[in-house]
Amino acid sequence: METTHVGIVGLGTVGSGVAKILLEQSTRIARHAGRQLKLQHAVVRDLKKPRGIEIASSILSDELSKITDNAQISVVAQLIGGLEPARSIMLQLLAAGKDVVTANKALLAEHGPELFDKARELGRSIAFEASVAGGIPIITSISQCLSANQITSLRGILNGTSNFIVSQMEESGMKFDDAVSLAQQLGYAEADPAMDVDGSDAAQKLAILSHLAFGSRVGWKDIPRIGIDSLDPADLRFATELGYRIKLLAIAQLTDHGLELHVSPSLVKIGRPLAEVREAYNAVSVVGDAVGRVFFQGLGAGQMPTASAVVADLIDMATGRTKITFRTLELWSQREARVDIREHDETPGRYYLRFSVKDHPGVLGDIASVLAQHQVSIASVIQHEPTRDSEGSLVPLVIMTHTATEGGVRQAVEQIELGESVKQGSVRMRVLD
Amino acid sequence: METTHVGIVGLGTVGSGVAKILLEQSTRIARHAGRQLKLQHAVVRDLKKPRGIEIASSILSDELSKITDNAQISVVAQLIGGLEPARSIMLQLLAAGKDVVTANKALLAEHGPELFDKARELGRSIAFEASVAGGIPIITSISQCLSANQITSLRGILNGTSNFIVSQMEESGMKFDDAVSLAQQLGYAEADPAMDVDGSDAAQKLAILSHLAFGSRVGWKDIPRIGIDSLDPADLRFATELGYRIKLLAIAQLTDHGLELHVSPSLVKIGRPLAEVREAYNAVSVVGDAVGRVFFQGLGAGQMPTASAVVADLIDMATGRTKITFRTLELWSQREARVDIREHDETPGRYYLRFSVKDHPGVLGDIASVLAQHQVSIASVIQHEPTRDSEGSLVPLVIMTHTATEGGVRQAVEQIELGESVKQGSVRMRVLD
Questions:
Q1: Hey, which residues 324-343 in chain A have their CB within 8 Å of chain B?
Q2: Smallest CA–CA separation between B143 and chain A, in Å?
């Protein structure tokens, strides 16, 4: 049986998981790959740092040259997070003739074109199944299994931290800050979860998926995004009352007017698969013109789910499948984008609006007429009977709209907030069909 | 750009769908395959039969030799159902040097070893993503994306017809026969749906999946199976009352005592992804030791979802990916089975039992003591207050058990039915954890 020699750069959580599978499950891997995968070297920054696995000192090194100078090693899992030195190391590995597997979505979303062009120039391949939705095989599904289709819609819960936090807020009425603390205690959130909860992480993943599915070349920073950091438990309660759950969704929708892309907390009908995704799970709902809707759910992060995806990529590289896919798809090549992005203000949708209004007559009428001026028509309203406590004070007014445009709704809300009976800070969320 | 010449044998529902995609979406397919896929010939039995697509007469033929004698054609979609002449045609295609894509799960479940050995002997490949769960990429996921894992559990809703029928019975209280008629009217069921509703179709698919996931070589006829053909609306109501839905599940569970395989209507907790799969959808829930649980849902049948899977296989063959996967995995080779099958009577599980009992004192006590003799302990009971109508007549007694063995529960029920207060035809269904 032939042997493919493998290197790992970075033995953090994911890297240790990958090493664990390669070292402990070599028989299984050989059976699935038709060849041995031998971990030759693992390069780390600090040799003395304790790691959760037994790894021979002959394998460990703190010099990248152990891998780049070793002609036997043909495939490397590059598992360092962040942009630098991850980018430079990736370029060095490619230049040294290695095919590279990565789980680093930030790196791809930021430097994809440069890295992929360099790989093509050097005749090398890059694989990145683990970069989006961890254990869910969404990259392979889009680029291989659904290749007969024009994909028309992608809706994803792509950030497990946010989903955990929102699930906690909904199920136990917890406030955002308390749910974040719990997520940190349980290891679902980083010490600084800013990129998770503000929608950036989901936008990076959406940028990668929409490049694969639609050939779009939009930068992740140009994707309109709203996070869950300003989510109020009150809206989770109203959503439930209306028959919905709130999920942080990353959405790409192909229309005759271009591709709509956005990340935002959205209302999803209870009973729909996306609505029932709890805890730190990820999910993606894909629609293809031939296949219809296909729904995937799995763990989007964590040591072993992510390592599972990385090792599958290593096996695909060792067998030669990745090389074929990589050459065929010409990802992030210099070709022009295949699709235009639709102006965000023009995207249509139904909306959930919550205003804090002074509890006196005529307010609903005033709001309704401003909405009407912007072609926003009302589908339903929740305005509870005032309680003794609320008299003269602020009460919530919840409005579900019919289909309107993002821009129309935004402008209407801005104008409504100019009125003296309405407090600043109204809530506006998409409602899924 | 290079061209791969493709043949189709059989232009029924799926074949027409495949031809439609190849003819109408050639630009898209070329982009995803990195080469043209040209439909050279489609062979049918009856040239005069009307078909839902425009197809040039130069492509159509009623002679298989148009394909077998054409050296240009390297890849053929063989889309004839049933065992013969499907098997003979497949062997002729392989002998003529063609790689073959098929959607025929009955053929693979029955003649897999023969066909795969022949393909290997001749240096050819077989692809079969469409044979199980149509548009869900479960074959690729198991054999490629989850290859870092030991799969430990597969639970599938693999027969869309049955799922549609059970969903109708549950949602509208319809009887089995009426739900079958509706399914036939809507095109979800064949004129003779016997193989669908008696669990045979699901068992064939489970045999294929468990060969892929566990290396088992069990014949589908040896998989214990119960269909939905004796399902009573009363049990759907009791299940709902208990917080469950009933689904026809195909289950493979790896244990220290061997692989458990069975197909049967089972109770799944409401809110669990499998419980929420409605209409004619299929779903598969897979657990891998690294990835955890991954859940897939999509359309398991129908023209375009199945064609989507067939065309993906054609693309994989044209690019060369299939050849690698086929050689690597050595499916249905002469190698011994990698796993033993656990004796069905020994498999553990919780059970839902419904007895029709004479409405007089002492019956529950008698039943409980027989269950206890067989080490079956009771978790909960539903016995409604007798109504005026029920006095002296038969009333339902529903029992949920703690974990017991299949054999213990079966024997207990047999013994209970010997009692004069209990009617024959008790109901016994698995309850999922």
A1: 324-325, 327-330
A2: 8
pLDDT tens digits, B225-268: 999 998 999 999 999 999 999 999 999 999 999 999 999 999 99
Say how many Å lie between the first and final Cα of chain A, rounded: 53
Residue A294: which of B33, B136, B325 has the nearest Cβ? B136
| 3-state helix/strand/coil string of chain B | CCEEEEEEECCCHHHHHHHHHHHHCHHHHHHHHCCEEEEEEEECCCCCCCCCCCCCCCCEECCCHHHHCCCCEEEEEECCCCCCCHHHHHHHHHHCCCEEEECCHHHHHHHHHHHHHHHHHCCCCEECHHHCCCCCCHHHHHHHHCCCCCEEEEEEECCHHHHHHHHHHHHHCCCHHHHHHHHHHCCCCCCCCHHHHCCHHHHHHHHHHHHHHHCCCCCHHHCCECCCCCCCHHHHHHHHHHCEEEEEEEEEEEECCEEEEEEEEEEEECCCHHHHCCCCEEEEEEEECCCEEEEEEEECCCHHHHHHHHHHHHHHHHHCHHHHHHHHHCCCCCCCCCCCECCHHHCEEEEEEEEEEECCCCHHHHHHHHHHHCCCCEEEEECCCCCCCCCCCEEEEEEEECCEEHHHHHHHHHHHCCCCCECCCCEEEEECC
User: In chain A, which residues have their Cβ closer than 8 Å to the Cβ of B273?
Assistant: 273, 276, 297
Is B298 within 8 Å of A293 when comparing Cβ atoms?
Answer: yes
Query: pTM of whole model > 0.90?
Result: yes
Asked if pLDDT for residue A392 goes beyond 80, the answer is no
Domains of chain B are 3-134+305-329 (3.40.50.720), 138-298 (3.30.360.10), 345-431 (3.30.70.260)
Residues of chain B with pLDDT under 70: 386-392
For residue A345, give both structure tokens: 């203000």
- Does residue A253 carry a pLDDT above 90? yes
What does the block give as tokens for A418? 């100019």
* ipTM (interface predicted TM): 0.95
8 Å CB contact of B293 and A299: yes
Q: How many CB pairs under 8 A join A and B?
A: 185
pLDDT digits (tens, 9 = 90+) for A31-53: 999 999 999 999 999 998 888 88
Q: Are B360 and B414 in contact (CB under 8 A)?
A: no
Interfacial A residues in 120-139 facing B (CB < 8 Å): 129, 135-137
Nearest-by-Cβ selection for B146 from A34, A273, A308: A308
Residue pair B126/B254 in contact (Cβ under 8 Å)? The answer is no
